[in-house]
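Human: I'm a chemist; would you kindly supply sequence and C-alpha cells for a protein?

Assistant:
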Amino acid sequence: MVSRRRFLQLGGAVVGAAVAGPTLAACGDGGTANGGAKASGELALPTYKPFEGVRPDLAGAESGLEPGFLRFPADATASVKAPPLKNAVTALTETFATPPPPMGSNPMWQSLNSALGAELRLTIGTDPGYPEKFATLLASDSLPDLMWLPPNQGIPNIGPMLEAKFQDLTKYLSGDAVLEYPNLAALKPASWRTAVVNGKIWGAPIPSTPFGQVMMGNPRTWEKVGGLQCSTADEFFAKCKELTNGTNYALEPAIINMLHMFGEWFGAPNGWRVNQDRSLTYLYETDNYKAAVEYAAKLWAAKVFYPDLNLADATPKTVNGQIAAQVTVGPRATSDFRAMDPTLFVDTMIPFGHDGKAKPVYDMGYGTVGFTPFKKTDEGRIRELLALMDYLSAPFGTKEYLQKNFGVEGQQYQLDGQKNPVLTKAGTQQGPGLVSALQIMTAPESVIFNPAFPEDTKKIYATEQKLLEHAMRNPTAGTYSDTSSKVGPKLTAAFRDTIVDIVTGRQKLDAYDEALKRWKNGGGDKMRDEFAAVLPSSVPVTGS
C-alpha cells in the first residue's frame, strides 16, 4: 500500500530530499501466447551506456545498490546538445502531489518550455481516477502524443492496445540505435525490459528505486527495549509488548504492510516462487505466508497495533513516539521523518529468520514505474518525441536535471552553502506537483541524495548493502499476465479483506483456505499459467 505522499517520490530525486519509490507490478510482458514470449526473448534491448559526466561519492552496483551523492556536482554538465522541440507536445501523466498551477500561471513550467524549445502541454490526472482518464482519452479520436501507462492500475489488454493505438519504437531504440539518445542509453537493461511487449519496445521506461518496503522505527522509542533490530520473531513480539501501554503502541495499523514484513521473516516469496520443475507457487499458497498471518493475529491479540485501522499517515505519531514502527517504501524514506523532525534519523529493520535459523528474505521492488508510449505518427515526429524523452531523462548532476526538478536559479531555487539546490518560496509553490507529474512519465536511474543531511546518504547506502544480503526479486518482474492485469487487483483486495478479518479476530484462521480457493478459482490459477508460459529460462529456482 503506497500513500500519495510517498508515491510522489517515484523516480529520480525528490526536491530537497532523499528519494523513495514504490513496490509495483511491472508493465512489460515478455510476450503472449501467440509467440510474443519468443520474440521478446530474442529482442536486442537498447545498448547500455552509463552516463559518465558525474562521479558519485558512493558507487552503485548491478545488485541494485544505488549510487550516493553527498552534494550536488559543482559544475552541472549539459547532457543534450540542443532544445529537443520545434513543435508543441501533448502528454497525459499523473501526479500524487497537489496539482501544480496551470502552465499559463506557472513560471517554472514556462521556463521548462523555454528550455525545451516549445510547449509541453500536460494533462495531469490524480489518484484515484487515472485509469478512467486514460480510458477516456484512449477511446477518443485524438490521442495525446504521450500517455503514461501505469503498472498497477488495472488497465487491461495491454498488448492489443499497444498494437492498435501506439507506435512501435523498436527500430529507434533497439541495440545501438538508442545511442543517438545518450540519456535513454543510460537507462539500464532491467528498466527497458518493462517496456517490452510482444517482442517490441513501446516507450521509454521510468526507473525508480529497486528497493521495496521496509519497517522503520524511531530509535528513541526502541532504545528502551534494546533497539529495533531482532534475531527472532519471539524477541520482536516481546519488545512490542513492552513498548505498548494503552497510549503508545508498537506498530502502525496498516496490517497488510506489517504482514509483508513478517512474511519476509518467515521466508515467504516475493510474489511468486519458482519451483524445481519451473512451476510457480504464489505467495498466498505458501505455509510461510500463512504462518506470518498467524503471527500477525498473535500480535493483534496482544494489542500492540495502533487501534485505529483508518489512520491515514502514521509518520507524525512515529516521530512523536506514540507509534514505535511503521512500514515505508525503501530505506530512503528517512527523509519523511527528517522533514518533521530534523534531529531524527529512523532505523530500518534488517530481515531475520523467524526462529533465528530460517533464511529470511528481503523483497526488492521492480525498479520501474511503467513506461510512456507514443501515439502512432511519422518518423520526424517520433524522433522529436524521443529527443524530448532524452532531455527529460537527463541523469542526476546535469543542467537538464536541474531545470526539470528545480527550475531556474534565483527564481525557483537558490544554492545553499554547499552549492546544493534548495527551492525558494516560489519554487515550493510552482514545483512539486509539476515535478511529480514529470517524474511519473520520465526519469533517470535513481540515486541517493539528501542535500540537507549528507550523512544520511552514507547511512542509507549502508542499509541498502545490508538489505541486499537477503534480496529476493519477483521472478515475474518484466513479464505480463492479462488475467493479472484485468482481475489481479480485485482478487488481491478480496483476499486481503479476509486476511485483515483473520488478524483482527473477526474470522478464524480456517477462513484462509477458503479465501485461497476463491483466489485460485477466480483467476489465480490462470495467472500462474500465463506467467509460467513467459517465464524466462534465466530466472533462478527459488523454492523446492
Summary: Residues 1-35 have pLDDT under 50 and may be disordered. Residues 38-77+86-210+367-449 form a domain with the D-Maltodextrin-Binding Protein; domain 2 fold (CATH 3.40.190.10).
